[in-house]
Design a protein that fits this description.
Chains A, B: Catalyzes the ATP-dependent phosphorylation of thiamine-monophosphate (TMP) to form thiamine-pyrophosphate (TPP), the active form of vitamin B1. Chains A, B: It catalyses: thiamine phosphate + ATP = thiamine diphosphate + ADP. Chains A, B: GO terms for molecular function: ATP binding; magnesium ion binding; thiamine-phosphate kinase activity. Chains A, B: This is Thiamine-monophosphate kinase. Chains A, B: It comes from Cryobacterium gelidum. The structure is a homodimer. The first copy, chain A, has about 350 residues and is of the alpha+beta class. Chain A has two domains: about 140 residues, 2-Layer Sandwich (60s Ribosomal Protein L30, Chain: A); about 160 residues, PurM-like C-terminal domain (Phosphoribosyl-aminoimidazole Synthetase, Chain A, domain 2, Alpha-Beta Complex), CATH 3.90.650.10. Helix content of chain A is about 30%, strand content about 25%. Chain A is built from nine helices and 13 strands. In chain A, the strands form three sheets. Chain A has a seven-stranded mixed beta sheet with strand order 8-10-7-11-9-12-13, with helices on both faces. Chain A has a four-stranded mixed beta sheet with strand order 3-6-4-5, with helices on one face. In chain A, strand 12 and strand 13 form a beta hairpin. The longest helix of chain A has 18 residues. Chain A is globular. Chain A starts with about 20 loop residues before the first helix and ends in a 17-residue tail after the last strand. The N terminus of chain A is likely disordered. The interface between A and B is large, with 60 and 61 residues.
Chain lengths: ~350, ~350
């Protein structure tokens, strides 16, 4: 994480807004802050970028984050937004067993937005890439006007000669294992909804900042997740039979592997911690859930959560059980309040 | 353009909105309408897609279109929006001399949006790919909620062993040539601003429809551009020294080649048609502007517009002239009214 000497490392204190500058001038402020990609053959400045794909294939995923439905500016700093936009996309690349190589970024923002907000987003993207996927960088982008701050990231990865790890390869008897955290992001969101708002339920900067002091791990897991990107290629090398990024909660995402693979998954309650409903229901943890052949040792970073079971006439594919008993997914939903809160 | 027998070819007449369906159900309605990519090794349904890159490199560009700043629903049908989102991105890929291979699409829309709107967008994307870049298809996407309809497309291309054609390779004496239309899109926009609005200046469906009958070529050039995608690889094979997509007007975009190449560009007024200011100032034509060595024959589809000139102590790099005289870029600006019109 040693910065180049000439790259600014924190947002400028200027009060200029996007409306004060040309698009070219704004891009000129943002691009120097972004990390270069080792795979970049041609970067920003032409009609398109050119990226190296030595494997002869590339992995691609895209995700859009919009102010309101996806984030609140009272809770997330610009740096947080850039970090999360990178982290969630890198995690989808890693979930294929690929090594992230590059991102492109489209930003739309109101003309009244301070340039320092975009600088902060760029800094968050850079710091996330440097921390979680060294060598991955930003090779291009687009800047538009909008009423709501919007980030669209598309991320690329290289499979390094390996087959992609799909959701559909889990087999009965396989070990179900996780790399990453479980439940913290959901707790963080629930705390923000309950205590990070004012008396009218509107997201509140000061109360959110207080939560960041009293519950740093949970709030950080929600606002600035640290997915185990390196675990993706490690799991692929270790022979993972299926894998995905846990974005909607362990039970829902395990159900996706189970359905795609035509199997069931049984979790061992002793592996899920003290708050089982939180572990199963919390979203946005962005850990990597993978399955491995029964006789193979789990690779570093992964811990056992359960076992793949066979579907049958009485147990349909996609069924999730805990200690053999059906799991009710409606137990805990940290998103319950999401649509009701503005700001 | 022969459709698969089981692919729906026109929007459903259902009145369902996005709020009536799960995200999975909406995607299930959209994806069957989208074209598959010949380069697709793994399509939608996993954490990321896998695309073939036989060249060992890939070209990438991204662009966001937002209701309000970038389009008006009173003027553009959903099919128009899908078409234009694909066409503009394909054009940026072609401008590198690459063959478009695949797209990913992130859509954000209000929950009240009829599903048929998204179906129409998908149909427009499909029809554009089939018409302009056969074999190019949609390999993945993302669906979000927002207040303003937003489309973010990222497009990929294959260089087929060739060097990318950059903006920076034009040399004094080179022929400046264009494939595509010139000025129609700007005239179409000016017509829409002036005559496609009601008495209060608000974009109006009926008046826009009337314009589509009286000025079909100009309005279509603005709302559903047909960039000469095949001309990109053709120009590269013919040895184009520089190339770009004409998106902001001939004079501005020629200036970009000239600045990047350290040269000037002189247009021959006899090659610019009867309305020279419109030819030089109209934006969004999405033709391909390229330069070729003086002794090489222009490839099919390209016509001569002028000559690359040397920069000097008195003529700085980036200078655009017409018949040797400096060009004033402020002559005609079809976007003058853009920010003032809502709807």
């Amino acid at each position: 994480m040693t910065p180049a000497a000439d790259v600014p490392r924190s947002p400028s204190t200027s009060t200029e807004t996007l409306a004060d500058l040309s698009e070219g001038a704004v891009l000129g402020r943002i691009f120097p802050r972004l990390p270069a990609a080792a795979a970049e053959l041609l970067g920003p400045g032409d009609d398109a970028a050119v990226i190296s794909a030595p494997d002869g294939r590339f992995v691609v995923t895209t995700d859009m984050m919009i102010q309101g439905p996806d984030f609140r500016l009272a809770w997330s700093t610009p740096h947080d937004l850039g970090w999360k936009a990178a982290a969630t996309n890198l995690s989808d690349v890693a979930a294929m067993g690929a090594r992230p190589t590059a991102l492109v970024l489209a930003i739309a923002a109101p003309p009244s937005t301070p340039v320092s907000v975009l600088e902060g987003i760029a800094d968050g993207l850079r710091d996330c890439c440097e921390a979680l996927a060294p060598g991955c960088g930003v090779v291009g982008g687009d800047l538009s006007a909008s009423d709501a701050l919007t980030l669209a990231v598309t991320a690329f990865g290289d499979l390094e000669g390996r087959a992609p790890v799909l959701r559909s390869g889990a087999r009965p008897g396989d070990t179900v294992a996780l790399s990453g955290r479980l439940g913290d992001a959901g707790i963080g969101l629930e705390l923000l909804f309950r205590l990070g708002v004012d008396a009218d339920g509107v997201p509140d900067l000061e109360r959110a900042n207080a939560l960041k002091l009293t519950h740093p791990a949970e709030v950080a897991a929600q606002l600035t997740p640290v997915p185990p990107i390196a675990s993706g290629p490690i799991a692929a090398l270790a022979g993972a039979t299926a894998m995905l990024d846990v974005s909607d909660g362990l039970a829902i995402d395990a159900g996706r592997i189970a359905r795609a693979s035509g199997v069931g998954i049984d979790f061992d309650s002793a592996c899920l911690g003290e708050r089982i409903e939180v572990a199963l229901g919390g979203g946005e943890d962005h850990g990597l859930l993978a399955t491995f052949a029964p006789d193979s040792a789990l690779p570093p970073g992964f811990r056992r959560l359960g076992t793949v079971t066979a579907a049958s006439a009485s147990v349909r594919a996609g069924t999730i059980t805990v200690d053999g008993a059906p799991h009710d997914q409606s137990g805990w939903d940290p998103y319950r309040g999401w649509d009701g809160a503005a700001g």
